[in-house]
C-alpha cells in the first residue's frame, strides 16, 4: 500500500453557511424571518436572527490563505475560499486534498443548535432549525451522494420536538446528530438528568451517533487576557476531556450497549492516560461514590462507546496499540487553521505508514464507516475514491490551490513583535460586535 492507495474519510469539517441557505426550504413570512446574512458599515458580514447578531461569517476559515494571514478574525464572504460555502467548490477542494468523504458541522449558525436555542421565539426557531436540517441533508449532502455524512442538529429545548426531529432525520437517511457536550451551558438539565431519557431512547431506536464537538459547551479556557493565543490553541483538543469524563459517567451507556459518541476534534495521544486515570479513580473511590461502574471498568465502556477523531497526532498513531485501533478516526477540520489542506495525504501517510494495511484502513475510513453507519461504496467504486483517483480528477479540472491573499483585520498593530494574546482577540471581537450594533 502507498499514499495514493489510501481512502480517507474526514469526520469533522465545517460549512460557512451560504446566504441563500433557506431559500429553497421556506417561503413567505417564514423565509423573511429566517436567519439573514447582513453586512456592517465596514463591509464585514454577520448573521442576524431574532434580534441577535452572530459575527464571524468565516471564523478562522482561513484555508487557502498565506500563513501570515491566518487568524480568528471575522471575514466577509468574498474573503473566503469558495469551498467554504459552495458545495461544488467543496467537492473540488476535497478531491485535490484526496478526501473521499466529509462529515460537515455548521459554523456560522452554530454546530450545536446555539443560534436557534438562543432565539426567543422557539416556535419559529423550530421551523428554521428543521429548514437548516433540510438544507444540510437534502441540498448540501444530497448534491453528491456518498461524499458527505449528514449531521443534523436538534431542538434540545423541546423534548417532544427533539424526538420527532430524530425520527424525521432518520427517515432522510441521516445517522448522526450534533449536540452540546454540556447542555447546562444552554440552561438545560445536565446529561445525567431524567430529562434526557426520551433522547437516549430515540437515538438508540434509530441507530444514530451523537457527535460532541469541542467548544460546544465546556469552554476552552484562556489562562489570562495577557496569555499568548498559542497557549489557548495548544489546549483546544484537550478541552474535550472534561466533556468526555462527564459523558463516560452516563448511565445510558450501560442501558444501551450499542450507543455511539464521537469526540470531534479530540485528538488521540492523551486517551490512554485518560482511560487509565478513569479506572484508577473508579478503583479508589467506587466504594463510597455509588459509581455506575461496579462490575465494569470505565476503560471498557469508553472503548465500546466512543470514537476519537484527530487531525495530526504522530504520537497517538505511534502508540496506536495503546490508544485502540478500533476507536480512532481521521478529520481534516476544513476550512480552519489546523486543516492541512491541500496536503493531508502527505502528512497522514507519514504518520500511518508504519501501521499494517488493516490498521491504516481502520484509521482512514473503516472506523468512520462503522461508527457513523455510512457506506460510500453504495454510490462509488472504491478505486474512484482513493487519494490518487481524486487528485487525478482535481488535476484534470484544474483546481487551483495557490495561496491567495484576502487581507482581513489584524488583532494588533502591524509591525508589532509581541505575541498576539487572548485579550487582543477578545478586543477585536468586541470591536466587531460594536460595529454591528451601530450598523443595525
Structural commentary:
The chain is of the alpha/beta class and 440 residues long. The protein has a single domain (3-439), classed as TIM Barrel. 38% of the residues lie in helices and 12% in strands. It contains 17 helices and twelve strands. The protein has helices at 28-32, 87-96, 114-117, 122-140, 159-171, 197-205, 229-234, 240-248, 252-255, 271-289, 298-305, 314-318, 320-323, 344-352, 357-371, 387-397, 422-439; strands at residues 8-14, 36-39, 45-49, 52-55, 99-105, 148-149, 152-153, 176-178, 209-213, 260-264, 306-310, 328-330. A six-stranded parallel beta sheet has the order 7-8-9-10-11-12. It has a three-stranded parallel beta sheet with strand order 1-5-6. Strand 8 (176-178), helix 6 (197-205) and strand 9 form a beta-alpha-beta unit. The protein is globular and about 60 Å long. The model has no long low-confidence stretch (mean pLDDT 93).
User: Can you give the helix content as a percent range?
Assistant: 25-40%
Straight-line N-to-C gap: 57 Å
How many domains? The number is 1
How would you sum up the global shape? globular
Query: What is the CATH topology descriptor?
Result: TIM Barrel
**Strands across the major sheet, in which order?**
7-8-9-10-11-12
Biggest β-sheet description: 6 strands, parallel
The overall strand count is 12
CATH superfamily: Metal-dependent hydrolases
> What order do the SSEs take from the amino end to the carboxyl end, as H and E?
EHEEEHEHHEEHEHEHHHEHHEHHEHHHH
Structural class: alpha/beta
Q: What gyration radius follows from the Cα positions, in whole Å?
A: 21 Å
Proportion of residues in extended strands: 5-15%
Total number of helices: 17
CATH class, named: Alpha Beta
Mean pLDDT: 93
